[in-house]
C-alpha cells in the first residue's frame, strides 16, 4: 500500500503544473509508473475525486477500481466556502498565513470537530502561502470539470462514490451527478459532513474494506 499526500496538500511540496485536476491526474499516472505499478485500486476523496477520474479516463488499464467522493463534479454545484475559493482571484491569500484559514475551513466543513492534533496537522498543511497555492487547484475547476464531465460516460472502471449527507461545501448533488454518468458505480450517502474519515472513520473504512474485498467485482 502506498499512501501519499498529493503535491500541494498535506505537507507535500507543490509546483504550479500539478495544481489542477488535469495536472494532478498526470502526476498520479507518473507516480504509478515511478513505483512500477501496472494495476491498482486507488482511493482519493475530496480533490482526489476529479484527479483520479481524469487519470482513469486517460489510462483505464491502470485501475482495478476507484474510491472517490466529497470532491466537486461541477463548479456550479459547489457551496459555501468552496464556492468562494473557486471564484477567488489568484494571489488573494498570498500575503497572509493560510494556517488559521485552513484549520478553520476544516472545522467548518466537518460535522464533528476534529481533535486538536488533527487540526494542527491541517493548520501546518495550509501554513504560509500553502493555502494560496492549494487554492489554485479549485480555481481550475471551471476549466477542468467540464472536461471531466465530457468523459465520465467513457470510464469503465468500477467506482465507489462515498459522500457525506451533510457536506456543507460539496453537497451530495456532486456525487449524484457522478453516479448518473459513470457506467459502473456504487453510490453511498453516509451520515457525515465533508470529512467523512474524521466524522465516521470506522463506517467509512468499513465501506472501503467491503468494496475492496469483493464489492467492486459485482458491478
Give the helix/strand layout.
Layout: H1 21-34, E1 40-43, H2 47-58, E2 63-68, H3 80-87, H4 99-109, H5 116-126, H6 130-139, H7 141-151, E3 159-164, H8 173-181, E4 185-190, H9 196-199, H10 201-213
Parallel strand pairs: 1-2, 2-3, 3-4
Secondary structure: number of strands: 4
Distance from first to last alpha carbon: 24 Å
Structural class: alpha/beta
Rg calculated over all Cα atoms: 16 Å
Average of the residue pLDDT scores: 96
Residue fraction in strands: 5-15%
Q: What spatial order of strands do you see in the largest sheet?
A: 1-2-3-4
* Number of helical segments with 4 or more residues: 10
The shape, in one word, is globular
H and E order = HEHEHHHHHEHEHH
Question: Regions with pLDDT < 50 over 5+ consecutive residues?
Answer: none
Main sheet overview:
4 strands, parallel
Helix content: 40-55%
Q: What can you see in these coordinates?
A:
With 219 residues, the protein is an alpha/beta fold. The protein is built from 10 helices and 4 strands; from the N terminus they run αβαβαααααβαβαα. It has helices at residues 21-34, 47-58, 80-87, 99-109, 116-126, 130-139, 141-151, 173-181, 196-199, 201-213, and strands at 40-43, 63-68, 159-164, 185-190. Helix 2 (47-58) links the parallel strand 1 (40-43) and strand 2. Helix 1 packs across helix 2 and helix 3 packs across helix 6 (130-139). The longest helix is centred in the first third of the chain and has 14 residues, at 21-34.
Amino acid at each position: 500500500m502506498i499512501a501519499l499526500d498529493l503535491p500541494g496538500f498535506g505537507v507535500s511540496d507543490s509546483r504550479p503544473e500539478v495544481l489542477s485536476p488535469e495536472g494532478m491526474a498526470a502526476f498520479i499516472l507518473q507516480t504509478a509508473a515511478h513505483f512500477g505499478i501496472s494495476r491498482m485500486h486507488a482511493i482519493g476523496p475530496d480533490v482526489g475525486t476529479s484527479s483520479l477520474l481524469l487519470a482513469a479516463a486517460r489510462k483505464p488499464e491502470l485501475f482495478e477500481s476507484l474510491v472517490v467522493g466529497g470532491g466537486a463534479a461541477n463548479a456550479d454545484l459547489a457551496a459555501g466556502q468552496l464556492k468562494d475559493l473557486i471564484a477567488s482571484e489568484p494571489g488573494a491569500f498570498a500575503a497572509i498565513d493560510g494556517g488559521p484559514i485552513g484549520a478553520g475551513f476544516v472545522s467548518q466543513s466537518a460535522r464533528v470537530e476534529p481533535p486538536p492534533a488533527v487540526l494542527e496537522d491541517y493548520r501546518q498543511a495550509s501554513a504560509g502561502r500553502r493555502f494560496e497555492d492549494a487554492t489554485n487547484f479549485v480555481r481550475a475547476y471551471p476549466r477542468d470539470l467540464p472536461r471531466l464531465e465530457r468523459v465520465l460516460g467513457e470510464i469503465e472502471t468500477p467506482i465507489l462514490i462515498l459522500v457525506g449527507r451533510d457536506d456543507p461545501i460539496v453537497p451530495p448533488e456532486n456525487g449524484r451527478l457522478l453516479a448518473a454518468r459513470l457506467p459502473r458505480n456504487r453510490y453511498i450517502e453516509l451520515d457525515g459532513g465533508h470529512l467523512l474519515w474524521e466524522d465516521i472513520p470506522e463506517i467509512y473504512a468499513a465501506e472501503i474494506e467491503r468494496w475492496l474485498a469483493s464489492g467492486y467485482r459485482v458491478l
